[in-house]
Amino acid sequence: MTENWSAVSKAINRRLAELGLKQRELVERSHVSQAIVREIQNHTVERRRSARTLEALSLALDWHPRHLEAVLYGRKPLEPGQTGDEALDAIATRLGAIEDRLFELTERLDTMSANLAALLKAADRRDAR
């Protein structure tokens, strides 16, 4: 498989601009040495890097852990949370939608509960007079 470190460099630089981050912040977030980040970002030294380095940089840039590896080998990067298994990703997407809906329903129930408590309190005051 052909490695495209230039594409990795471009992806990192684009993402840093999108996120408004500086190289120093990427170093801090990824815990990858500044020398290595500089080499990859500026595409000055082309050599094999560990999968952990690419993963740390991907995560620091709020990407899927294997995003930069996919870019390096010319594959379509996955979105955070995706597994690459279409069936599992579809299930995860549906579960996420269910969780969102449950959260909305919980908020509605909390509001209804608070309104009911206020009504009962007002009725108790009326009865006490």
Automatic annotation (TrEMBL):
It comes from Amycolatopsis rhizosphaerae. This is XRE family transcriptional regulator. One of its GO terms (molecular function) is DNA binding.
